[in-house]
Amino acid sequence: MAYRVIKCFYLKFEMKKLIYIFFFLCFISCDKNSIPPPTTCFSSVQMENIAEYPTDPLEINTVYLEDGKMFLNITYSGGCEEHVFTLIQTPLFCGTPPIVLIFNLSHNNGQDGCEVLITQDLCFDITNALLNWSYTDDVSVMLYYPDLWWSLN
Q1: Within 10 A of 37 (CB to CB), how many other CB atoms are there?
Q2: Which of 12-26, 56-70, 138-152 shows the lowest mean pLDDT across its residues?
Q3: Tell me, what DSSP letter sits at residue 152?
């Protein structure tokens, strides 16, 4: 009987240690803002027919503009196939201020049926799109992903 009590006490003690370690690791884990942005930025594509590009499911966690680059942090499921992300600039409706540059994010999951949640940082260089309108301060940049609009400035 004493052996069972000691064993039970020991197991509870070990479980408490594991819980404390878990909370400690969660507490000191890296802040999302301290993660450096990706070093490689892809160019955006100007395309007239947006329907040609797939919009497989993903979640946009954060998005911001810095020095003519659009940085995104996204989460999607996969892990078995290569995923391709494309930023597509839609044609302007009108070229008079205020200018609204609309970008669409395309996600092609390559028919990936795996369910591992992957969080990834993406970078797209939109400098050329911004340079065309550098003479005016009335430029708004927006990102669209099905049913979500992000205003970036």
Answers
A1: 14
A2: 12-26
A3: -
